[in-house]
Amino acid sequence: MKTFPIKLPAEISSTNIDLLINTIFQDFTNKKVLLDFTYAKWLEPICLALVAFSVFHFHNKDIPVRYKRPSNNNLQQYLDSCRFTKIINVKKNTDIEELETNIPLRHFKLNSLLDYAYIERIMNLIKHEVSLEPEIERILRTSIAELFTNVNDHSRSKLGCFSLAQWYPRKKKVCLTVLDNGIGFLKSLQQVYPDLSSEKEAILCSIEEKTSSKSTDRNAGMGLYTIKLMIEAGSGKLDIISGNTQVTFNSDGTLNIKNWTNSFPGSIINIELEPTLKNLGIFADTTHREEEDWF
Amino acid sequence: MARKVIVKDLLKSENCYDREQGTVLYKVLLDSLINRQAVEVDFTGIQTITSAFLNSSFGELLKCRPQIPVVKKLVKVTYIDNFSKKILNKVMTNKVAKLVVDNPCQDCPYTNCIHHP
Q: Which phi and psi angles does A61 have, rounded to 5°?
């Protein structure tokens, strides 16, 4: 059986995650996989969540997988401290000190996703860098909780959900990744919008605030819509990956759309929040559009 | 006199995150509505309310169209933040939109329907 090395490049963030997806999700029938971290130096949460998921994905397909540690010792320490090596089962010890700058990688099974303490830890990490007014903090906490309830209620993910958050004090940003291997945005939303024909259309549809007759349980909570508004009100970006498509929502309102060959079997939400949250008043007003008042 | 439900005490939590919590509130609300008793749902001290919770509590009350005025008349929600109120209104409006298509009253299959107790 031949070994296929997946060599991680020096840096991976949401900007070049497509390279990794295209490499990982190809046909490895009758091959072994070597996850080679030798040259890696800077890996953002989206990369670690993806690689950790890929290990479970390979095991699920009976594809043998091995891990080759990075030559950079700082990165190895980081991989240990954020529990990456423990989750992928190459390090057994649990006595490694967690860092103040991250919320370690977690693998949730469906129906155990709503861990209140975990969401509170994410909020506390965000508050290191981003100053939040009480009302905005409440809205952001609700929106993050909605990301997890969406995975729980709509993704039908067989391998559960992977999540990791990281604060970068020098870069002044906080990253949060939530990854599942469910049915993706297109299949999920086609149940209500049968005319949708691509992941790109489905992602763009999911981010809109719908009028009543076109709403679904999936967007009633407005988690993604609200996070997009929050990013547009300040800075940072929101990436949504589903299947073979990545849509990036930038803080200036522009979009970047990428397609690639090999589909990711599920969806990934990646949020980057930066501290310059200006125009929060405008954001708050936007969320208070008039609806029929029921009670 | 309206029955008062303090959500924080009922759930023993400051966060209304999941469907299981919603079902706890739903059962209390349904009990009041079947007895035609007005009920005030007080969200004092609650930090987070997700759409999953609201769907499985308030949303579940609407299983056929004639229930709409009953729910509107008997249920009162107090001390809920503006954002959560917006989500609640959206959840209820979504539910009504689905009832029109999926669940006309004449086919109401629910034995515990508050319109046909």
A: -100, 15
Of the candidates B17, B55, B93, which has its C-beta nearest A212's C-beta?
B93
Question: What is this structure's pTM?
Answer: 0.86
Tell me the domains of chain A and their CATH numbers. 2-286 (3.30.565.10)
Q: Phi-psi region for residue A260, left (φ > 0), alpha (ψ -120 to 50) or beta?
A: beta
Choose the closest CB to A141 out of B48, B72, B89. B48
The string of pLDDT tens digits covering residues A103-156 is 999 998 877 767 888 999 999 998 888 878 888 888 889 989 988 888 877 778
Answer yes or no: are the C-beta atoms of B77 and A246 closer than 8 Å: no
Residue B26 and residue B60 in contact, taking contact as beta carbons nearer than 8 Å: yes
CB within 8 Å: B93 and A291: yes
Is B116 within a domain? no
Question: For chain B, first and last CA: distance in Å?
Answer: 21
Q: Are A215 and B47 an interchain contact pair (Cβ–Cβ within 8 Å)? A: no
Q: Distance between CA atoms of A115 and A108, rounded to whole angstroms?
A: 9
